[in-house]
Design a protein that fits this description.
The chain contains 23 helices and seven strands. The protein is mainly α. The strands form two sheets. It has a five-stranded mixed beta sheet with strand order 4-3-5-7-6, covered by helices on one side.
Length: 511
């Protein structure tokens, strides 16, 4: 009996000790979850949205496969400064996006997933930075949460985050630059960090990235005036920026005689004249903006109108927010050459404008109710604000649900298969001869064949068609062409041999 009592006492002690440890763990764990619940929800939701089936589809024929080929060539040559594509120098864009893609290739190998990984992971970080920006601007977590939901469920943001393009990378550096600029306004020790991200922004896309400069000036001019107190951090910040940016631009300026013209004017400003910036052509850009963000579009108009009409822009943070929205949007409103994905940088300030505007409208409505001197509203002031948060959250989550439901079939692949152009490009890599492409998907053919490709459209006049090529080419070659084009060889009594064929394309050569 005594032994039984000892065993029972030990059992109870062990159970009690374990229970106390569990309670202690719960005491630490659940407050952490509660404090960071918005952050955790955003990570879970958008990690799924951005990474689910990320590498299950083939790369797109132009930018994705183009940038992937450039990155693979960079790794192959070991030259991370001078970019090349299909035997020609490439300096349309700075190399930051390609450097990040190269790191992904080094870690995961060359694949569709690794091509898209930098965009997806930085797209997720952008969501978190937008949350932090909204929280900092409004002093309310829920405003940051709403802004993150808006950006993350704008359909063209999701599409580009899930692709191997530069848009997501560019927006990450843009949003982080503004965020650390706001931190530097409070403590200038953050200014070097801000300048490091600004350098990354310029090294992602040059002229579009430079639009962050007036925003930073609006944020930091009061700190620049206090130059004696902040001189150390200002010097460190600008030194950091120039160390990141200057070498690549200087090397390319010295290497390529047309670098300034091509990089800044032909590509950066799309050869726009100065006068064109004063001629509005807003119909197409606003249409594309509407299509890109869909249900958030009219909420943006309402919110921006409210912030202007009710003079909310007199608050410095809101003025900076509206300035950011105008500075990034205005150039697109002066051209009819805008594509839908070009407007993605507008989505970040737009999301913040919507989220803050509707929150501020709700607060104004509560103040109006309390101003009627109704005892019920005065006593339940805190409860009313909680009800506002609940209503605000429910409204935004409902729109989020509608957005995802609408674009889900567009974003996520319903059928996973290898397209005919990808299939034939893989097959042509088996042949050592000179390769010609009689079609318009050159970047995709280069990426999946991992070979130098001669596009027929770039050939001289006497070899620009399949028939002329077969008549005039003396060297051994193979050519990828449409199946129907082979009939022209038969009609012209030219002998040929089909090496490979699928439903759409053939690889043919001289026998």
């Amino acid at each position: 009996m005594k032994i039984f009592c000892v065993i029972l006492e030990n059992f109870i002690f062990i159970k009690y000790t374990r229970r106390m440890k569990e309670l202690k763990f719960s005491h630490k764990f659940f407050p952490f979850i509660g404090k960071h619940s918005f952050f955790i929800v955003l990570i879970i939701l958008f990690a799924w949205l951005f990474f689910y089936h990320l590498g299950s589809t083939s790369l797109g024929s132009w930018d994705e496969a183009w940038y992937g080929s450039i990155t693979r060539e960079m790794i192959k040559n070991g030259d991370y400064i001078h970019l090349n594509w299909n035997g020609k120098p490439f300096y349309d864009h700075p190399p930051m996006g390609f450097w990040l893609m190269a790191a992904s290739y080094k870690i995961f190998g060359v694949s569709e997933f690794s091509t898209r990984f930098p965009s997806a992971i930085l797209g997720l970080f952008t969501i978190l930075f937008i949350y932090l920006l909204g929280k900092k601007i409004s002093k309310e977590k829920i405003v940051g949460f709403g802004a993150a939901l808006i950006l993350g469920t704008s359909v063209w943001y999701v599409i580009r985050v899930r692709s191997g393009n530069l848009d997501s990378i560019f927006l990450f550096f843009y949003v982080s630059t503004i965020y650390f600029g706001l931190l530097a306004k409070e403590k200038m020790k953050w200014f070097p960090v801000c300048m490091a991200f600004f350098g990354g922004l310029i090294m992602s896309k040059t002229l579009v990235g430079a639009s962050a400069l007036p925003i930073l000036l609006a944020i930091l001019i009061p700190e620049f005036i206090k130059i004696k107190r902040n001189l150390k951090w200002i010097l460190i910040g600008f030194t950091t920026f120039f160390a990141i940016v200057f070498p690549w631009y200087w090397i390319h300026y010295k290497t390529y005689s047309d670098f300034i013209q091509h990089h800044f004017f032909d590509i950066g400003s799309r050869s726009k004249s100065f006068d064109s910036y004063f001629k509005l052509q807003y119909q197409l850009p606003l249409f594309y903006l509407h299509m890109g963000i869909r249900k958030w579009y009219y909420l943006w108009i309402i919110s921006a109108g409210y912030l202007i009409l009710f003079c909310r822009f007199l608050k410095r943070n809101i003025f900076i927010l509206l300035l950011w929205n105008v500075v990034i949007l205005y150039p697109f409103l002066t051209t009819d050459q805008t594509s839908i994905w070009h407007l993605i940088p507008v989505y970040a300030p737009l999301a913040l404008v919507i989220s803050y505007g509707f929150w501020d409208m709700g607060l104004l409505f509560l103040k109006l109710l309390q101003s009627f001197k109704i005892t019920h509203f005065k006593k339940l002031k805190l409860l009313n604000k909680n009800l506002l948060k609940f209503g605000y959250l429910c409204g935004f989550l409902f729109i989020v649900f509608l957005q995802i439901k609408t674009f889900y079939p567009e974003v996520f692949p319903q059928n996973i298969y290898i397209p005919d152009d990808v299939d034939i490009s893989m097959k042509v890599s088996r042949y050592p001869q000179k390769i010609y492409l009689d079609d318009d998907y050159l970047p995709l053919a280069v990426f999946y064949s991992n070979r130098f490709m001669n596009q027929m459209a770039y050939e001289s006049e006497d070899r620009r068609t399949l028939v002329k090529l077969f008549k005039n080419e003396k060297e051994s070659f193979v050519v990828i062409t449409r199946n129907w084009a082979v009939d022209n060889l038969m009609k012209n009594n030219l002998s040929f041999k089909i090496l490979e064929q699928n439903d759409s394309f053939s690889i043919v050569t001289k026998p």
